[in-house]
Amino acid sequence: MIEVECSRCGSRWQVEDESAGAHVQCRKCGLIFKPPVPGGDEAAEGEPQTPALPAEAAQPPSPPPLPWEARKEAEPSGLAAGGLLLGLAAFVVAVASIGTCAGLVVALILSLFGLTCSIVAVVKAARARAPIGLAITALVLNSLFIVLLPFYPVLMWLWMGFAG
User: pLDDT tens digits, residue range 17-63?
Assistant: First the structure.
């Protein structure tokens, strides 16, 4: 057994003879170093002495995520597509229920849910620096539908008046 002493924290312990000349890690502070070879000096063997490294520096750092991998976690395309589909469904329901108040209420509820999904998708895309086009499209569609919904009966009356 070889007794080793950490050059950083001064703690002492024993290691097997086979560990002489190999890297060992301090059990207290995590410093990685080579214990001396019994009866000889490392520099005398022709091997350069390596500086002591902390445990964190001994392991290579993980590479940063690739741009498409970083975006994939916060990809808002599902929310944006949902918002767009809800906006389109609101439009279809409003057109299909010409003259009924219940149809317009259902269309308004669909559009409000679509607007909520679109806002969340825009915020997530902006934070992740991801593509934002589909989320903006859904946001504009739902916003316009909600703003124009009170004028829908007037527009239908004008359209039916000019068409008929």
Answer: 776 677 788 878 878 877 777 665 544 444 444 555 555 555 666 66
**pTM for the whole structure:** 0.49
Q: Where are the domains of the chain?
A: 2-58, 67-163
Class for the domain spanning 2-58: mainly beta
State how far the Cα of 6 lies from the Cα of 125, in Å rounded to an integer. Answer: 50
| Spatial distance between the Cα atoms of 110 and 104, rounded to a whole number of angstroms | 10
Q: Which residues of 107-139 are buried (b: 16+ CB within 10 A; e: fewer)?
A: bbebbebbbebbbbbbebbeebebebebbeebb
Three-state SS string across 100-153, please?
Answer: CHHHHHHHHHHHHHHHHHHHHHHHHHHHHCCCCHHHHHHHHHHHHHHHHHHHHH
* Residue 33 burial (CB count, 10 A): 19
Cα-based torsion angle of the residue sequence 72, 76, 82, 85 in order, rounded to the nearest 10 degrees = -100
